[in-house]
Fold each of these.
Amino acid sequence: MDSGLPREQGEGRKPAGAFHRRLALIFGLQLLGVVVCVMLGLFDVAPPAAVLVLIVVVSALAWLAARRAWRPVGRLARVVDAWDEQPDLDALEPGRLSSRADADVVSLARGLHGFASRIAGYNLRERNFTRDASHELRSPLTVIKMSADMLSDESELSKFGVRSVKRIQRATREMEALIEALLILARESDVGAGEEEFVVNDVLQRGMDDLRQMLEGRSVDLKLEEPARFALHASPRVFMVLCWQLIRNASQQADHGTIVITVLPGAVAVSNRVDAAPVIDRHGFELAIAQRISERFHWPLELQTRDGTEHVASIRFPETLPA
């Protein structure tokens, strides 16, 4: 990475600290010029109007000189400000600086170039890891899921075997939801991937069977209430993964009761209602993942407790579309 980088000394490069000395010289000369102009006015050598004009001229010349000295730093600042997902390594190449650039500016450019190169390497390794992890994690889960489904169809299984197969199926579905959420969070560039326009109510209705299967074996009912209806332009996969995490968290709050998914105007709320026993305040890993997804996609997540017996997690969607 250091090949082609300019040397700090020689080849017209000014030594380290020359930038600060140049600025000090510019403002020192400006101060001297202002003092001279004031002295000319005090001793009536020049009229006040001429003194004011001279001060303005001296200040303008100092400003132009300082601006010219600051130009390489300003160019680097504009390049860094234009960073989006992938830094522009060519624009940060120190060799593109003027041969008269100060060594401090060259050092700054070299540091930014090295930092941008490391970011580019991180992004490449992230893409490779998520691609490989997505395949290597999902393939064995698919095999386990298919094997458990085939075992569940066996008529000779004992009651203990049936219960064991159901636990395997439930754990597999939970692991699928967890892996999907972690892969979404691992992809820094996945914010706009797979976006389409979809109706929130329709996606929830299609996913109710999978959600009920995920809660199978628990004394928890799942209901969908739809007092409102709206659409989003986003990834339906990300939306469902977020709902899965909130529902899994709600199922951890109480050992029995009802989990209600409510579609409100511009929001979706997940609440767990318990009639007799109080709700357990037990926020786990699922809620932490949901919070990170909401922050990534700018969907605010709000948590409330009502009457000490009901926890409500609400997701607000700032940009909704009519259904």
Note: The longest strand covers residues 256-264.
Amino acid sequence: MDVSDLVIFEAVSRHGSMNRAASELNTVQSNVTARIRALEGELGVSLFQRHARGVSTTPSGQRILPLVARLTKLLADVRTAARDDGAPHGSLHLGSLETTTALRLSPLLTQFVKTYPEVRLAVTTGTTRRLLDDVINCRVEGAFVAGPVNHPDLHQETVFTEELVLVTSRQIRGLGALKDIADLKTIVFQAGCSYRQRLDSLLADMGAVTARPLEFGSLEAIISCVSAGIGITLLPKGIVGPAWQEGRIAVHELPHDEGHVDTLFVRRHDAFVSSALTAFLQMAKSRTGGLPHPSLEPAAAV
């Protein structure tokens, strides 16, 4: 079996298109089509269902896709390990929660890029669910996610601990008022966000009835909607400090067990840990506790 055929298969599956996969791989569509047909012939199964919009991966293709990802990552690890002489260099692709990137990683990324200019660093943001999937399927070398995590293929370590707070408009004076609000809306990231799941659980325990959540793709959009009184959200305290200081929102602290969450760094057990990743994690750990939250004093009531 030709490994390059498996690389082509992965690209076609990811793009859902022979043409887009060919463009990524710097080849022509006819070559991609021929290689896929050869791979299907060798395996004795159809890997894609052809339709007018492109292709869809068949159940057979879905079953081998994780194995292909692991194989191609292993080959990449072989090349990286052979050239890794201890000096951080090459590419480093990580994943992170958007909140962690904004609150914790921004200064760290700046320092890392200045310290190790030979490393090509890329950071992809997403929900905990999506980031775990990216790590498991070898799309990133590791990711910062919200704990707890329990997966046999993943190594994990706690890097940060965040205090979560309930964020509302200034008209809501306390948590007890939430259960009396008809049609209470939550303003959240897309499904798979661990903070969203915690918010749902918290409100259920309080007996608050919520409407269908409103999903947004950025922190600023979420905070702006909460400020306008459209709904409520759950976020790390350090993230909402500026908006609280400006008097745009109200912040409600939670009991310790409900209001604290570990941010974990996860990676595959079987993946090669490059010098670049080792240097990044050492720098992240050295800054743990050295990234204080902004002074969270609310603006005077108006």
Note: The longest strand covers residues 154-168.
